[in-house]
Write a structure and sequence with these properties.
alpha/beta; 14 helices; single chain; 12-stranded mixed β-sheet; binds magnesium ion; 447 residues; two-stranded antiparallel ribbon; 60s Ribosomal Protein L30, Chain: A; globular; 44% helix; binds guanosine-5'-triphosphate
């Protein structure tokens, strides 16, 4: 049974990433078969699975694939652009009326998004979601995409996510959020991030965190891009997301094999509702030109990936090899659960043992619930071999702590608070946000 996922794209960032994500799915589906690739019928099976998961191909199943997506922004420009880019690809498009936009954005004001635009768009947006859900034979869940720093993605995003939870209480909801550059383009970005994350924490099943600073470095150092644009960064984000979401059979600890539906993945990755923050580390990551001249062995790839995990390195360059895992008081990045997905040549025979080492995990998770692996013999997106590690670990909490600290400094001077109050947000709402995230930080710190 193939479970479909509906993507909800919110604000500029969410829409731009959403557009790229469907391009990435299609690029992977249409990537030239590598010499090592699976038999044609297996490739066809893979393609059909991708199409059913993320696209609707009409009653007959033969129309131009339409993204299972709803686009929401408070200004028209980005949606129009994203829509056109999809159409121009000739491979897929968005359904014509599955978007909602207004004429003016939320001006980087979370309260404007959450308290004003959110309720105003609720009935229309939810109708669009319902329409999309009706087209799914089996709805596996929702993927919401948004930035934390603006006003629409974060504010309207948090509001719409709450509506999704109310209307689809049993569906899985995963949010992918973009952490702003630390240098900050938006003066109130820490407020917006605080308010968004604290609301999402009560509502969704998991939050995948990606930091613009890390992604920027990947573009610079691994992809050697000189002038880095959001387009480049979004390609990296979508590559990561696709390594998680494209079909990959999972090995359950019971010995059964199941598909990597969003439900199976999140049930494993989020074993306790206090811990919902996920990160994705993947290897290798390189430009198309460099790929031609590179070969790897699974052993080397996985050794690097494991060190990226324990030393919490965002990419394969500049890893700190001094960090070691020892059971007593070591400084390594502790995990609750990991999902390791291997794709490509000889992935079936790769040794994933080093990832099930109990010293990597908190002691209160049963050993057979710490690591789940998945193996997909089909090569992913031109990479002969690639590995992706989705982790619920301490990794994001340092950034979160710093963000809450900066927001608190501003809040104790009541800086900019009146701009939020103007739209109906109270000081207590801020205090609730601080309390929620301080608890999250404390939980993770004590792992
Ligand atoms: N990675 C990435 N980050 C983006 C992109 N667009 C904007 N951002 C980041 O998102 C934040 C700004 O939020 P936006 O998504 O532009 O804001 P919005 O949701 O449209 O909200 P308003 O414009 O205030 O109505 C900043 O931290 C930007 O760095 C994008 O395409 N990719
Ligand atoms: Mg905007």
């Amino acid at each position: 049974m193939i479970m479909s996922i509906i993507t909800v794209q919110l604000g500029q960032c969410g829409n731009q990433i959403g557009g790229q994500l469907f391009h990435t799915f299609m690029d992977d589906v249409h990537s030239k078969p590598l010499a090592t690739q699976v038999a044609p019928d297996k490739n066809e099976e893979y393609k059909n699975e991708v199409l059913s998961r993320f696209f609707y191909c009409g009653e007959s199943g033969e129309g131009t694939p339409k993204a299972r997506a709803v686009m929401v922004d408070m200004e028209p420009k980005v949606i129009a652009q994203t829509y056109q880019d999809a159409k121009r690809s000739g491979r897929w498009s968005y359904s014509e009326k599955q978007n909602y936009c207004q004429q003016r954005g939320s001006g980087n004001n979370w309260a404007h998004g959450y308290c004003i635009h959110g309720p105003a768009c609720q009935s229309t947006v939810m109708e669009l979601v319902r329409r999309e859900a009706e087209k799914c034979d089996n709805l596996g869940g929702f993927l919401s995409l948004m930035s934390l720093a603006g006003g629409t993605g974060s504010g309207v995003g948090a509001y719409v996510t709450r509506c999704l939870r109310d209307e689809f209480p049993h569906a899985f909801i995963m949010n992918q959020v973009v952490w702003p550059y630390k240098t900050g383009e938006v003066i109130v970005q820490n407020y917006n991030a605080l308010l968004t994350l604290s609301r999402l924490y009560h509502t969704v099943d998991a939050i995948v965190v990606m930091e613009n600073d890390h992604l920027h470095k990947i573009c610079q150092q691994l992809l050697s891009i000189k002038k880095i644009s959001f387009k480049d960064i979004n390609r990296v984000i979508c590559h990561k997301l696709a390594t998680m979401l494209q079909p990959c059979p999972l090995n359950k600890f019971t010995g059964d094999i199941c598909s990597n539906s969003i439900g199976e993945m999140l049930e494993h990755l989020v074993p306790h509702p206090d811990y919902k923050l996920l990160t994705i580390k993947n290897i290798p990551q390189m430009s198309a030109a460099a790929q031609e001249f590179s070969t790897y062995q699974w052993h080397g790839l996985l050794k690097h990936l494991r060190q990226m995990l324990i030393s919490d390195a965002p990419m394969e360059e500049g890893i700190d090899w001094q960090v070691k895992v020892s059971s007593r008081g070591s400084q390594h990045n502790t995990s609750l659960a990991n999902l390791l997905l291997l794709r490509g040549k000889e992935s079936v025979s790769a040794d994933t043992g080093p990832f099930s080492d109990s010293a990597l995990y908190v002691p209160w998770i049963p050993p057979d619930a710490t690591l789940m692996t998945g193996v997909q013999p089909r090569a992913f997106n031109h990479y002969e071999k690639s590995a992706s590690l989705i982790s619920n670990s301490k990794s994001p909490v340092g950034e979160m702590d710093a963000m809450v600290g900066k927001a608190w400094d501003m809040f104790s001077a009541r800086a900019y608070v009146h701009q939020y109050a103007k739209h109906g947000l109270t000081e207590d709402d801020f205090l609730d946000g601080f309390a929620t995230l301080e608890q999250v930080i404390s939980n993770y710190k004590h792992l």
